[in-house]
């Protein structure tokens, strides 16, 4: 373990805390989320995987918008985890990606970027002071820091949180006191929960490929997407079964460290301990969940949409452009599952 490994891990921890606070605001609990990180630690050590899992804004925000209440959101995460674990274990994930094609997967992810931007804009409309300030600071920081996402999230969250505390705004009132014990939350099933689980699974397919490859490419490592899909799916299933948040693949700076596996494991251990020891809910009393909206807007509108849309429209003729456009539009208007299905069905009709 080198100093570079430690600094990389701490940087990802700092990046994960505001997104973990967003998870609390949505209704997930910190204490059982530590189980998800434990799954990640064990899996990365056993498989020597350089791709860690952590708090992912896209999954948290989408789950929050798909579920009507806490039980629905937990159930959506649980069943999505089951689906992803099955796809990873059987190798069906590779088949789905092959059938859809990279263009449709990227177009779906671009649609997810529009969903994130829409969530941020809705936040600005409902809580203009905190969300608006967070977005303004995030935009300024993003461009001044030469598109550094870590600086963007830390500074925008810090500035908007200081403002909220100075103005003595009500923060964290919806964060109930957590039970410091593991209690099983029986997952429910309904058509809306199934639809949510399928939508979240489609998002995870794209994220595991995109984020996993980016993290691996930061160093000289390889992303085994089936391994990643299995242990991130198991982490989601176990965490949500006890009331915790999803723990998913991320773009992790630990991939560029001297020892990516060790650095990624250290990051997950630190965040897991923060969850387990009860530090996060205390922090949530001073950091409003709305402070993440600036980062969501930048991540969605300035990073996810242009990056994935350019890849989706980069190859092919008019038919492929039409497929990508339809997939992106349907995803942003509904959810990733319907977007992916629309793209695949239209692909078979046109090509």
Please supply descriptive tags for the structure shown above.
351 residues; 2 strands; mainly alpha; two-stranded antiparallel sheet
Q: Would you give an account of this structure?
A:
- The protein is built from 15 helices and two strands.
- It has 351 residues and is an all-alpha fold.
- A two-stranded antiparallel ribbon has the order 1-2.
Give the low-confidence spans.
Answer: none
What oligomerization state is this entry in? Answer: single chain
Instruction: Report the count of strand segments.
Output: 2
Mean pLDDT: 90
Total helix count?
A: 15
> Based on CA inertia axes, which overall geometry fits?
globular
Sheet having the most strands: 2 strands, antiparallel
Order of helices and strands: HHEHHHHHHHHEHHHHH
Distance between the termini: 51 Å
Approximately how much beta-strand content do the residues carry?
under 5%
Structural class: mainly alpha
**Strands ordered across the widest β-sheet:** 1-2
C-alpha Rg, in Å? 19 Å
Which range best describes the helical content: under 10%, 10-25%, 25-40%, 40-55%, 55-70% or over 70%? Answer: over 70%
């Amino acid at each position: 373990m080198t100093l570079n490994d430690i600094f990389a891990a701490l940087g990802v921890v700092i990046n994960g805390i505001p997104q973990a606070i967003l998870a609390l605001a949505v209704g997930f609990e910190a204490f059982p989320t530590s189980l998800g990180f434990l799954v990640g630690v064990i899996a990365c050590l056993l498989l020597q995987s350089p791709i860690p899992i952590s708090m992912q804004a896209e999954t948290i925000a989408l789950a929050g918008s798909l579920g009507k209440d806490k039980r629905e959101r937990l159930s959506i995460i649980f069943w999505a985890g089951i689906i992803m674990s099955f796809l990873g274990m059987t190798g069906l994930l590779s088949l789905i990606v092959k059938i859809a094609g990279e263009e449709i997967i990227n177009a779906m992810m671009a649609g997810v970027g529009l969903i994130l931007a829409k969530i941020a804009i809705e936040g600005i409309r409902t809580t203009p002071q905190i969300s608006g300030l967070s977005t303004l600071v995030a935009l300024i920081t993003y461009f001044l820091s030469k598109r550094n996402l870590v600086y963007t999230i830390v500074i925008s969250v810090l500035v908007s949180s200081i403002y909220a505390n100075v103005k003595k705004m009500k923060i964290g009132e919806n964060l109930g006191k957590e039970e410091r014990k593991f209690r099983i939350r029986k997952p429910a099933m309904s058509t809306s929960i199934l639809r949510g689980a399928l939508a979240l699974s489609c998002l995870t397919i794209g994220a595991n490929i995109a984020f996993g490859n980016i993290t691996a490419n930061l160093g000289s490592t390889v992303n085994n997407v089936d391994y990643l899909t299995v242990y991130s799916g198991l982490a989601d299933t176990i965490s949500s079964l006890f009331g915790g948040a999803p723990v998913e693949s991320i773009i992790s700076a630990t991939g560029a460290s001297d020892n990516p596996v060790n650095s990624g494991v250290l990051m997950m251990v630190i965040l897991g301990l923060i969850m387990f020891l009860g530090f996060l809910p205390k922090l949530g009393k001073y950091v409003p969940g709305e402070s993440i909206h600036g980062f969501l807007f930048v991540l969605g509108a300035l990073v996810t949409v242009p990056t994935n849309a350019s890849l989706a429209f980069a190859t092919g003729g008019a038919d492929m452009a039409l497929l990508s456009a339809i997939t992106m539009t349907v995803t942003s208007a509904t959810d990733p599952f319907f977007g992916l299905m629309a793209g695949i069905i239209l692909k078979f009709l046109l090509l």
